[in-house]
Each structure stands twice: as structure tokens, then as C-alpha cells.
Design goal:
- With 256 residues, this protein is α+β, with helices and mostly antiparallel strands.
- The protein is built from 4 helices and 15 strands.
- The strands form 4 sheets. It has a 5-stranded antiparallel β-sheet. Strands 1, 2, 4 and 5 form a 4-stranded antiparallel β-sheet that branches.
- It starts with 8 loop residues before the first helix and ends with a strand.
Amino acid sequence: MSGITIKTKEEVDALREGGKNLAHVLKELAKVVKPGVTKLELDYLAEKLIIEGGDEPAFKNYRPDGAKIAFPATLCVSANDDVVHGIPTSEPLKEGDIVGLDLGLKHKGLFTDAAITVGVGKVGRDAQKLMEVTRKSLEVGIKAARAGSYTGDIGYAIESYVNKFGYGIVRDLSGHGVGYKIHEPPYVPNFGEQGDGVLLRPGMVLALEPMINIGGDEIVLGKDNFTYRTRDRSLSAHFEKTIVITHGAAEVLTPW
């Protein structure tokens, strides 16, 4: 696949620095998630912390390919049946919600990308299990990401794990390359066949991000042209880390 890039040691060093900064911001955001906090307050804090760390927000004013408008915020905030790319609003979080926090930053000219899903107050058993399975599926995918393997091996590992729980795996969105841009080739789907897809080589930097639904896998785009929701309005969870492929186990660059 054309457009796939291999990062140099110096670039990986910079991405590692930026990734640690990004992980710090996500951890701080998770600490303030509670009933009554608004999505806009989380967005404001994310931007404040990124700038204080000497970095730049990656998502604010970013216009993805095919988008009619640029994304207007620093942080994507996606609650409950929102899958990803939720635009922050003045809506307060409620007890029992689950909320995805997806964030990117630019450090020394290079981009990292990560996401967590957090429970608001006390969440139900089903929601808690969904978050645990989704988080574990990311770990499973990272373990499969080794030089000499393929993007299909990552998807196969994630799909094989998630299928045991009967959850829906979002198929219309995927992980991706990252580094010089927010989104680079290759696509890294969260399903697939072993040995299919793009060969993984040392120096490739990828953002792996399983998006898992309690219900079916179908999603719809909201009227704001950014927020994707589950078609059946079931809960969705999202976890993401930026990694670099090495000669051994992949290294996590955003260790939240």
C-alpha cells in the first residue's frame, strides 16, 4: 500500500515524548469525569493541559478527508451509544454513563493518538464488562502487532477475542497509521484473516483502536457530520493506543 511510512529512531524518540504527554492528559481527564461535569469542560481542560505541556491539539480545526467542516474541538467526547468523534457540548455527564475520550496531540511536528472509555460514577455490570472486554481486546491486538506479521493478524486477534462475548465489532471504522499526519496508511481493521493485509515492518507507527458495541456492529453518522452512533442505540466502548513496530514486541508510545 502506497503512503506507508517508516519512522526514524529520532522520530520515534519524539513520538515517545509526545505519547507520554498525551497519556498524562488522558489520565488527568479521567480523574475529573463525574456526574455533572460537562463535555465542554473536559474539552477545555484537555486543550489547557496540552498547551501547558508545550504541545498542540491535533484534532482542533482538523478536516478529515470527505468531511464538510473541520472538527471544532480538541477532544472527542462520545457517551453511551456514541461510538467515536463526538463533538463536546454543554451537556452534563450523568451517573451510569460511559464516555469515550479520544485525543491527539502534535509534539515536535509529529502526531500521536489515544483514547480511553471511562465510567461516570457507578456504572452497570453490562457497561463495565463491555469496557473491560474492549480494553483487553486492544491489548490482544497489540500483542499480535509484530514485524513479519500482517494487519490482518491484528484484526484476527481482536475479532477472535471479542467474538467470545457476542459483541458487535465496528467494521466501518478502523485503526490507522499515524505520525507525520493524524491519519496515514495503512488501515488496521479490528477484524480480519491471518496473513492478510499489509506486512508489518519495524518503524511503522500505528494507532490501534477497537470500537466494540454491546449490540450489533452497524453505525450511523449523526446530523453534526462527525459523531458516529450505534444503529441499534446499544452501548459502545473505545480504547486506543499509538504503538511502534519493533523487531520484537510492539512498543506502546501512549502508555495511559
